[in-house]
Structure formats: structure tokens, C-alpha cells
């Protein structure tokens, strides 16, 4: 099968590898150089669903050494002053043996490993351009050109989208009082706040704040931002030094009404862009890759290629919709500081704290999707 992939971010690149390994001939279109693709300051939470995909593709051994595993995920409801700890025992038995609730990946390292891997595969042809390919040459075209997809604009595929009244600030911070194998998701009324381990005392802060407060923090000296961090982090935890400069980006929610248009299939952030809370974004993108690969391998669809986009859409519907709305729910949960909502919040936290079944249920959705 001849497939064009537009965009070689983490979705498009992994799709290229996965489909090439399924026997397809791939033209991978990208407007940026490899250097520009690698040089992005992003940090991802990798779940077991992604681990399984990377294992099946055969690239997991190339990537795992650059990942930072964590064994504890602390969910803190800042407004209620309550904490729930998810740990290895809350995972299902098969995932537990990997001794990690999840892994943290630094963009430059993971992108570099993927680019190196692509260079070893013969049936991937990289085409450095931003020109949208001619459909006649291909059986399928996968648009993985990001949340501001030009392809989608040209094809006039509508999506449901809105901007959160928030920005996301990311920073690398030396922190004392946290173990190097634990991650935090702190839900406070300014917005969710994640602390992700990067090895030893270094942690990545992913902090969403109202635009007003965020822009104050971004324009203030680092010491002011450190003071803010210490008000959010638990009492025993002390943020020490910010390494490099904090960065910020606006946050939006985007969900396509359709995941395809004719021969074009929308993958990754082109089809769904989520708030960073919960670290679901990249894992959901990679589950798109898994779905399209499974369909392309099916003998019936090999002979009826025209049906692949439709079946793809059906196969992704439940997972994408449920994770998108759960992620958005978490943002709204975090930001609601009206007293009446404290009762259901207290009940949710009480159940999670006291029921292993509830913790396992939530953790397994977060780690394996639906
Ligand atoms: C500023 C920013 C910061 C982020 N930070 C985090 C983070 O810290 N943690 C996290 O989990 N997630 C983060 N994300 C989301 C995360 O990067 C994505 O979920 C993940 O990279 C998968 O994206 P993608 O490959 O689908 O799209 P993208 O990464 O957007 O890749 C799209 C690719 O398509 C290329 N392209 C676009 N148009 C064309 C064209 N016409 N022709 C050829 N190529 C084209 C682009 O150059 C790009 O390389 C961030 C996103 C943004 C925008």
C-alpha cells in the first residue's frame, strides 16, 4: 500500500515506522529539518499503552534507556488538602511487572531515537516540503500536521474547539523533599499542576494558570515563580532553583467532528488536542497509530482500501471521545472552587483513597485508555 504522511512530529514519525513495518511504502512529508524537530522543549508522560505500541513496533529497546520511570503518582486535591497515591499494585498484573506506573520522556531524546530509527528503514522516503501531496499517487494520506493543520483547513473539515482561559507554563526545577521516582498531579483552582521526575533532584513543572496570573509569573523574576511553586507544592517539598527559562504556551481543546475526509485520515493532534493535565495527549496520538496499523494489516481492508478511513473513524471514536471529555472534566474539577462542588469532590477522593478497585479502575483507564 502507498501511504503519504503529512507531518513528522511524534505522531507522523511513529505512524511511518509502524506502517512501514506492516509492509507499506511511506512518503513522509515534513516542512522542518531534523534539527528543528528535535529542538523542542517538551516533556511527556508515557503510559503502558504507549509502551505496548513501541514494543510491538520494535523500537522500545531503543527508547527505554532515555526514559525516566516513576513508581508513585500522587494526586493532590489542593482545595480539600487531600492526597491519593496510585502505585504499582494499582496497575493490572501484566503492567505491574515493568516496575513503573509510567515513564517521563524528554522530547529531544525520544524524537532523536525515532529519527535515527527511521533512517534504518528502507521503505520510508522523507520529503522535506510543506506542499500537500497529490492524492492520486497514494492509497491513503495521513494528516499528522498538528493542531493548526493546513490539510484540514484545505479540506474544510470542521472541528469543535475552544481556548481555555489558561496558559501552560513549563520549567525545569531542582526540588528537595520529593523522591526521584514519584510524580504529582495537583488540582488547584488556578488549574492543574504536574510535577514530573527528570532524574535525581530535577523535575519538570507543567503548570496551568489563568492567563492573567500566568503572564504575571512569566514576566516576574524567577524567585517570584519559585515562591508561587512553594505555595502549591506540599509543605515538606521545597523548590530550590529554576534551571533555564520557564516557557509558556496557550492551551486549547480540539476535537474533529470527523476523523477522515475521503482518502485523508486525521491522526494525533490534527484530530484531537487536549489540555496537558493527566498527560494523555501523546499516548492518545500513539493509540491512533496503533489503530490505523491494525486496519492496514487486515486482509479484507487491503483489498478494500477505500473503507479504511471509515473503519478508522469507528475504531477511534470511543477512546478519543472518552479521554477528551475525561481530561476536560479534570480541568473543570480542578478549577471549581465553589463550596457546593466540594461534597462530590470529597466523595470522589474518599472512594479513591479507600478503594483499591476504584484506584485500579482509574489508573488503568489513564494508562491503557478505553
Ligand atoms: C507548544 C507546545 C508545547 C507542548 N508541550 C507538551 C508537553 O510538555 N507535554 C505533552 O505531553 N505534550 C505537549 N504538547 C503536545 C505534544 O507535543 C503532542 O501531543 C505530540 O507532540 C504529538 O503531536 P503531533 O505529532 O500529532 O503534532 P505536532 O507535534 O504538532 O507535529 C506536527 C508536524 O507537522 C509538521 N507540519 C505542519 N504542517 C505541515 C505541512 N503542510 N507539510 C509538512 N509538514 C507539516 C510540523 O512541522 C510538525 O513537525 C505540546 C504542544 C505544543 C504545541
What's the topology here?
Elements (H helix, E strand, L loop, with lengths): L1 E5 L3 H12 L3 E6 L3 H5 L4 E4 L1 H10 L2 H4 L4 E3 L1 E6 L4 E6 L5 H4 L5 E5 H12 L5 E5 L11 E4 L6 H6 L3 E18 L5 E7 L2 E7 L4 E9 H9 L2 H11 L5 E19 L3 E2 L2 E3 L5 E2 L7 H17 L1 H5 L4 H28 L3 H16 L1 H13 L2
Parallel strand pairs: 1-2, 1-9, 2-8, 5-11, 9-16
Antiparallel strand pairs: 3-7, 4-7, 5-6, 10-13, 10-14, 11-12, 12-13, 14-17, 15-16
Bound molecules: flavin-adenine dinucleotide.
What's the total helix number?
14
Write down the overall mean pLDDT.
93
CATH architecture annotation of the largest domain:
3-Layer(bba) Sandwich
- If you consult CATH, what is the topology of the largest domain? FAD/NAD(P)-binding domain
Task: Please tag this protein with its features.
370 residues; binds flavin-adenine dinucleotide; D-Amino Acid Oxidase, Chain A, domain 2; alpha/beta; 8-stranded mixed β-sheet; single chain
Describe this entry's structure for a reader.
By secondary structure, the chain is of the alpha/beta class. The chain has 2 domains: 2-68 and 103-161 and 252-337, FAD/NAD(P)-binding domain (3-Layer(bba) Sandwich); 165-250, D-Amino Acid Oxidase, Chain A, domain 2, CATH 3.30.9. It contains 14 helices and 17 strands. It has an 8-stranded mixed β-sheet with strand order 6-5-11-12-13-10-14-17. Strands 8-2-1-9-16-15 form a 6-stranded mixed β-sheet. Strand 15 and strand 16 (264-266) form a beta hairpin. The chain binds flavin-adenine dinucleotide. Flavin-adenine dinucleotide binds next to helix 1, strand 2, strand 3 and helix 10.
Amino acid at each position: 500500500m502507498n501511504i503519504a504522511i503529512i507531518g513528522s512530529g511524534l505522531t507522523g514519525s511513529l505512524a511511518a515506522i509502524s506502517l512501514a513495518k506492516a509492509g507499506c511504502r511511506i512518503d513522509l512529508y515534513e516542512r522542518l529539518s531534523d534539527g528543528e524537530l528535535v529542538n523542542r522543549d517538551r516533556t511527556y508522560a508515557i503510559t503502558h499503552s504507549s509502551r505496548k505500541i513501541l514494543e510491538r513496533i520494535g523500537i522500545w529497546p531503543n527508547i527505554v534507556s532515555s526514559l525516566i520511570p516513576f513508581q508513585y503518582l500522587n494526586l493532590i486535591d489542593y482545595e480539600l488538602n487531600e492526597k491519593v497515591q496510585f502505585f504499582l499494585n494499582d496497575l493490572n498484573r501484566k503492567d505491574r511487572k515493568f516496575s513503573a506506573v509510567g515513564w517521563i520522556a524528554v522530547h529531544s531524546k525520544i524524537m532523536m531515537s525515532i529519527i535515527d530509527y527511521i533512517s534504518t528503514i528502507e521503505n520510508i522516503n522523507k520529503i522535506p516540503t510543506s506542499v500537500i501531496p497529490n492524492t492520486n499517487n497514494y492509497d491513503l494520506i495521513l494528516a499528522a500536521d498538528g493542531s493548526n493543520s493546513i490539510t484540514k483547513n484545505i479540506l474544510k473539515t470542521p472541528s469543535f474547539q475552544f481556548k481555555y482561559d489558561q496558559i501552560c507554563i513549563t520549567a525545569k526545577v531542582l526540588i528537595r523533599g520529593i523522591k526521584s521516582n514519584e510524580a504529582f498531579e495537583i488540582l488547584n483552582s488556578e488549574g492543574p499542576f504536574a510535577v514530573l521526575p527528570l532524574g535525581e533532584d530535577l523535575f519538570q513543572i507543567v503548570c496551568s494558570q489563568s492567563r492573567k496570573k500566568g503572564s504575571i509569573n512569566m514576566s516576574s523574576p524567577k524567585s517570584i515563580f519559585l515562591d508561587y511553586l512553594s505555595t502549591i507544592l506540599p509543605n515538606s517539598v521545597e523548590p530550590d532553583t529554576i534551571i533555564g527559562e520557564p516557557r509558556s504556551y496557550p492551551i486549547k481543546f480540539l476535537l474533529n467532528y470527523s476523523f477522515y475526509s475521503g482518502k485523508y485520515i486525521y491522526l494525533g493532534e490534527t484530530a484531537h488536542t487536549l489540555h496537558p493535565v493527566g498527560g494523555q495527549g501523546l499516548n492518545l496520538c500513539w493509540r491512533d497509530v496503533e489503530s490505523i496499523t491494525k486496519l492496514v494489516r487486515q486482509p479484507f481492508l487491503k483489498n478494500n482500501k477505500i473503507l479504511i478511513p471509515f473503519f478508522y473513524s469507528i475504531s477511534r471514536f470511543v477512546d478519543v471521545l472518552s479521554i477528551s471529555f475525561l481530561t476536560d472534566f479534570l480541568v473543570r474539577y480542578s478549577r471549581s472552587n465553589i463550596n457546593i462542588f466540594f461534597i462530590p469532590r470529597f466523595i470522589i477522593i474518599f472512594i479513591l483513597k479507600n478503594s483499591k478497585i476504584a484506584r485500579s479502575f482509574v489508573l488503568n483507564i489513564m494508562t491503557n485508555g478505553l
